[in-house]
Amino acid sequence: MDKYIKFLKREWANWAFHKSVQLPLQEALVSFTFDDAPHSAFTQGGGILEGKGFSGTFYIALSFLDDQLQEEASFSKNDLQLALEKGHELACHTYRHIDLSKTNLLESIKDIKKNGELFKELFPEHELRNFSYPFGAETLAIKKFLGQEFRSARGIGHGLNVGKVDLANLKTIKLYRDRLSLEDIAKQIADAKARKAWVIFYTHDVQENPSPYGCTPAYFEAVVKMCANAKLQVQTVDKALDLIDELSQRSKQN
Ligand SMILES: [Zn+2]
Prior knowledge:
This protein is α/β, with parallel strands linked by helices. Helix content is 43%, strand content 18%. It has one domain (2-253): Glycoside hydrolase/deacetylase (TIM Barrel, Alpha-Beta Barrel), CATH 3.20.20. Strands 2, 3, 4, 5, 6, 8, 9 and 10 form an 8-stranded parallel sheet that branches. A two-stranded antiparallel sheet has the order 1-7. The radius of gyration is 17 Å and the shape is globular. The mean pLDDT is 94. The structure holds zinc ion.
Protein backbone atom coordinates (compact mmCIF):
# COMPACT_ATOMS: atom_id res chain seq x y z
CA MET A 1 0.00 0.00 0.00
CA ASP A 2 2.80 2.33 1.03
CA LYS A 3 4.55 1.68 -2.23
CA TYR A 4 1.37 2.40 -4.19
CA ILE A 5 0.83 5.76 -2.45
CA LYS A 6 4.46 6.68 -3.05
CA PHE A 7 4.00 5.78 -6.73
CA LEU A 8 0.84 7.89 -7.02
CA LYS A 9 2.44 10.89 -5.33
CA ARG A 10 5.40 10.69 -7.69
CA GLU A 11 3.20 10.29 -10.77
CA TRP A 12 1.08 13.27 -9.72
CA ALA A 13 4.14 15.42 -9.00
CA ASN A 14 5.60 14.62 -12.41
CA TRP A 15 2.35 15.23 -14.23
CA ALA A 16 1.52 18.51 -12.49
CA PHE A 17 4.87 20.31 -12.35
CA HIS A 18 7.88 20.42 -14.68
CA LYS A 19 11.05 22.40 -14.87
CA SER A 20 11.38 21.78 -18.56
CA VAL A 21 14.32 22.45 -20.76
CA GLN A 22 15.01 21.37 -24.30
CA LEU A 23 18.45 19.75 -24.26
CA PRO A 24 20.57 21.54 -26.84
CA LEU A 25 23.36 18.93 -26.85
CA GLN A 26 25.39 18.37 -29.98
CA GLU A 27 26.94 15.26 -28.52
CA ALA A 28 26.13 12.91 -25.67
CA LEU A 29 27.03 13.88 -22.14
CA VAL A 30 27.57 11.59 -19.13
CA SER A 31 27.40 12.20 -15.39
CA PHE A 32 28.34 9.66 -12.73
CA THR A 33 26.44 10.18 -9.50
CA PHE A 34 26.46 8.56 -6.06
CA ASP A 35 23.68 8.74 -3.48
CA ASP A 36 24.16 8.99 0.32
CA ALA A 37 27.30 8.74 -0.36
CA PRO A 38 29.28 6.05 1.48
CA HIS A 39 33.05 6.18 2.01
CA SER A 40 33.71 3.65 -0.79
CA ALA A 41 31.84 5.85 -3.28
CA PHE A 42 34.49 8.53 -2.68
CA THR A 43 37.57 6.31 -2.47
CA GLN A 44 36.72 3.67 -5.09
CA GLY A 45 34.14 5.38 -7.31
CA GLY A 46 35.78 8.80 -7.13
CA GLY A 47 39.24 7.24 -7.54
CA ILE A 48 38.25 5.38 -10.71
CA LEU A 49 36.78 8.57 -12.21
CA GLU A 50 39.90 10.55 -11.31
CA GLY A 51 42.02 7.89 -13.06
CA LYS A 52 40.37 8.94 -16.33
CA GLY A 53 40.45 12.65 -15.53
CA PHE A 54 36.69 12.69 -14.77
CA SER A 55 34.67 14.07 -11.85
CA GLY A 56 31.46 12.84 -10.26
CA THR A 57 28.53 14.17 -8.25
CA PHE A 58 28.01 12.93 -4.67
CA TYR A 59 24.55 13.58 -3.20
CA ILE A 60 25.17 13.66 0.54
CA ALA A 61 22.90 13.41 3.58
CA LEU A 62 25.00 14.99 6.32
CA SER A 63 23.39 12.94 9.11
CA PHE A 64 25.61 10.12 7.75
CA LEU A 65 28.77 12.14 8.49
CA ASP A 66 30.85 9.90 10.81
CA ASP A 67 27.70 7.89 11.53
CA GLN A 68 28.88 4.77 13.30
CA LEU A 69 25.38 3.33 13.57
CA GLN A 70 24.95 3.31 9.81
CA GLU A 71 28.46 2.53 8.79
CA GLU A 72 27.42 1.27 5.36
CA ALA A 73 26.27 4.80 4.45
CA SER A 74 28.85 6.73 6.46
CA PHE A 75 31.50 9.10 5.14
CA SER A 76 34.01 11.45 6.79
CA LYS A 77 34.74 15.15 6.51
CA ASN A 78 38.02 14.14 4.92
CA ASP A 79 36.12 12.30 2.15
CA LEU A 80 34.22 15.52 1.40
CA GLN A 81 37.30 17.73 1.63
CA LEU A 82 39.28 15.54 -0.77
CA ALA A 83 36.34 15.27 -3.16
CA LEU A 84 36.12 19.07 -3.40
CA GLU A 85 39.87 19.43 -3.84
CA LYS A 86 39.77 16.93 -6.69
CA GLY A 87 37.00 18.76 -8.54
CA HIS A 88 34.05 16.52 -7.69
CA GLU A 89 30.66 18.03 -6.92
CA LEU A 90 28.91 17.66 -3.57
CA ALA A 91 25.13 17.88 -3.82
CA CYS A 92 22.10 17.54 -1.54
CA HIS A 93 20.19 14.40 -0.51
CA THR A 94 18.30 15.84 2.53
CA TYR A 95 19.87 15.85 6.02
CA ARG A 96 18.32 12.79 7.65
CA HIS A 97 17.76 10.85 4.45
CA ILE A 98 14.00 11.19 4.87
CA ASP A 99 11.27 9.79 2.68
CA LEU A 100 9.73 13.01 1.32
CA SER A 101 6.46 11.25 0.48
CA LYS A 102 5.96 10.47 4.18
CA THR A 103 7.17 13.77 5.67
CA ASN A 104 5.09 16.94 5.76
CA LEU A 105 6.22 19.85 3.62
CA LEU A 106 7.54 22.09 6.42
CA GLU A 107 9.54 19.27 8.00
CA SER A 108 10.89 18.32 4.59
CA ILE A 109 11.98 21.88 3.82
CA LYS A 110 13.54 22.24 7.28
CA ASP A 111 15.50 19.06 6.80
CA ILE A 112 16.75 20.00 3.31
CA LYS A 113 17.75 23.48 4.52
CA LYS A 114 19.56 21.99 7.50
CA ASN A 115 21.72 19.93 5.14
CA GLY A 116 22.67 23.07 3.21
CA GLU A 117 23.37 25.12 6.34
CA LEU A 118 25.58 22.46 7.92
CA PHE A 119 27.41 22.07 4.66
CA LYS A 120 28.07 25.83 4.58
CA GLU A 121 29.51 25.62 8.09
CA LEU A 122 31.87 22.85 6.99
CA PHE A 123 32.79 24.39 3.63
CA PRO A 124 31.89 28.10 3.52
CA GLU A 125 33.27 28.47 0.00
CA HIS A 126 30.89 25.91 -1.48
CA GLU A 127 27.18 25.22 -1.76
CA LEU A 128 24.95 22.29 -2.62
CA ARG A 129 23.33 23.27 -5.91
CA ASN A 130 21.70 20.05 -7.06
CA PHE A 131 19.47 17.50 -5.35
CA SER A 132 18.52 13.84 -5.52
CA TYR A 133 15.34 12.41 -3.98
CA PRO A 134 16.02 9.83 -1.22
CA PHE A 135 14.19 6.58 -2.11
CA GLY A 136 13.08 8.38 -5.28
CA ALA A 137 10.15 9.76 -3.25
CA GLU A 138 8.59 12.90 -4.73
CA THR A 139 5.55 15.00 -3.92
CA LEU A 140 4.17 17.88 -5.93
CA ALA A 141 4.84 20.46 -3.19
CA ILE A 142 8.41 19.39 -2.56
CA LYS A 143 9.13 19.15 -6.27
CA LYS A 144 8.01 22.77 -6.71
CA PHE A 145 10.19 23.83 -3.78
CA LEU A 146 13.21 22.00 -5.18
CA GLY A 147 12.52 23.43 -8.62
CA GLN A 148 13.14 26.89 -7.16
CA GLU A 149 15.89 26.12 -4.65
CA PHE A 150 18.11 23.85 -6.71
CA ARG A 151 19.39 23.82 -10.26
CA SER A 152 18.21 20.25 -10.68
CA ALA A 153 16.74 17.25 -8.88
CA ARG A 154 17.47 13.68 -9.92
CA GLY A 155 14.89 10.96 -9.42
CA ILE A 156 15.27 7.21 -9.79
CA GLY A 157 13.18 6.80 -12.96
CA HIS A 158 15.10 4.72 -15.49
CA GLY A 159 16.15 6.26 -18.78
CA LEU A 160 18.25 8.67 -20.80
CA ASN A 161 17.63 12.40 -20.61
CA VAL A 162 16.92 13.41 -24.16
CA GLY A 163 14.91 16.10 -25.96
CA LYS A 164 12.64 17.95 -23.56
CA VAL A 165 13.70 17.00 -20.04
CA ASP A 166 12.40 17.80 -16.56
CA LEU A 167 15.25 19.30 -14.52
CA ALA A 168 13.22 18.64 -11.35
CA ASN A 169 13.05 14.94 -12.15
CA LEU A 170 16.11 13.91 -14.11
CA LYS A 171 16.18 10.30 -15.24
CA THR A 172 18.96 7.92 -14.39
CA ILE A 173 20.49 4.54 -15.11
CA LYS A 174 21.31 2.41 -12.10
CA LEU A 175 24.72 0.86 -11.67
CA TYR A 176 23.47 -1.75 -9.19
CA ARG A 177 24.97 -5.14 -8.45
CA ASP A 178 22.25 -7.25 -10.03
CA ARG A 179 20.65 -4.82 -12.46
CA LEU A 180 22.19 -4.24 -15.88
CA SER A 181 24.91 -6.36 -17.45
CA LEU A 182 27.88 -4.57 -18.97
CA GLU A 183 26.42 -5.47 -22.38
CA ASP A 184 23.20 -3.69 -21.46
CA ILE A 185 25.20 -0.66 -20.34
CA ALA A 186 27.12 -0.68 -23.63
CA LYS A 187 23.77 -0.56 -25.47
CA GLN A 188 22.63 2.37 -23.36
CA ILE A 189 25.84 4.23 -24.09
CA ALA A 190 25.53 3.57 -27.84
CA ASP A 191 21.90 4.72 -27.71
CA ALA A 192 22.89 7.87 -25.79
CA LYS A 193 25.58 8.64 -28.34
CA ALA A 194 23.16 8.22 -31.23
CA ARG A 195 20.46 10.36 -29.58
CA LYS A 196 22.81 13.02 -28.10
CA ALA A 197 21.42 12.28 -24.67
CA TRP A 198 22.55 13.17 -21.17
CA VAL A 199 23.16 9.91 -19.33
CA ILE A 200 23.17 10.13 -15.55
CA PHE A 201 24.45 6.96 -13.95
CA TYR A 202 23.89 6.38 -10.27
CA THR A 203 25.00 4.00 -7.58
CA HIS A 204 25.78 3.95 -3.85
CA ASP A 205 28.75 1.95 -2.55
CA VAL A 206 31.55 0.81 -4.85
CA GLN A 207 33.31 -2.14 -3.24
CA GLU A 208 33.96 -5.86 -3.40
CA ASN A 209 30.78 -7.57 -2.14
CA PRO A 210 28.65 -4.46 -2.68
CA SER A 211 25.16 -3.88 -1.28
CA PRO A 212 22.24 -4.53 -3.69
CA TYR A 213 22.33 -0.76 -4.37
CA GLY A 214 26.02 -0.62 -5.20
CA CYS A 215 28.50 -2.28 -7.53
CA THR A 216 32.04 -3.65 -7.60
CA PRO A 217 35.04 -1.48 -8.53
CA ALA A 218 35.58 -3.72 -11.59
CA TYR A 219 32.03 -3.13 -12.85
CA PHE A 220 32.22 0.60 -12.19
CA GLU A 221 35.59 0.87 -13.89
CA ALA A 222 34.30 -1.03 -16.93
CA VAL A 223 31.47 1.50 -17.35
CA VAL A 224 33.82 4.45 -16.94
CA LYS A 225 36.17 2.92 -19.53
CA MET A 226 33.30 2.45 -22.00
CA CYS A 227 32.51 6.16 -21.74
CA ALA A 228 36.17 7.10 -22.15
CA ASN A 229 36.57 4.77 -25.14
CA ALA A 230 33.43 6.20 -26.74
CA LYS A 231 35.03 9.65 -26.26
CA LEU A 232 31.97 10.91 -24.39
CA GLN A 233 32.13 14.05 -22.32
CA VAL A 234 31.91 13.23 -18.62
CA GLN A 235 30.90 16.09 -16.33
CA THR A 236 29.46 16.61 -12.86
CA VAL A 237 25.74 17.41 -12.87
CA ASP A 238 26.52 21.06 -12.08
CA LYS A 239 29.03 21.41 -14.93
CA ALA A 240 26.67 19.57 -17.29
CA LEU A 241 24.03 22.19 -16.45
CA ASP A 242 26.54 24.99 -17.12
CA LEU A 243 27.12 23.50 -20.54
CA ILE A 244 23.38 23.10 -21.19
CA ASP A 245 22.80 26.75 -20.16
CA GLU A 246 25.62 27.95 -22.39
CA LEU A 247 24.39 26.00 -25.42
CA SER A 248 20.80 27.15 -24.83
CA GLN A 249 21.92 30.79 -24.71
CA ARG A 250 23.94 30.34 -27.86
CA SER A 251 21.04 28.75 -29.76
CA LYS A 252 18.76 31.64 -28.70
CA GLN A 253 21.24 34.19 -30.05
CA ASN A 254 21.44 32.43 -33.43
ZN1 LIG B 1 19.86 7.69 -0.56
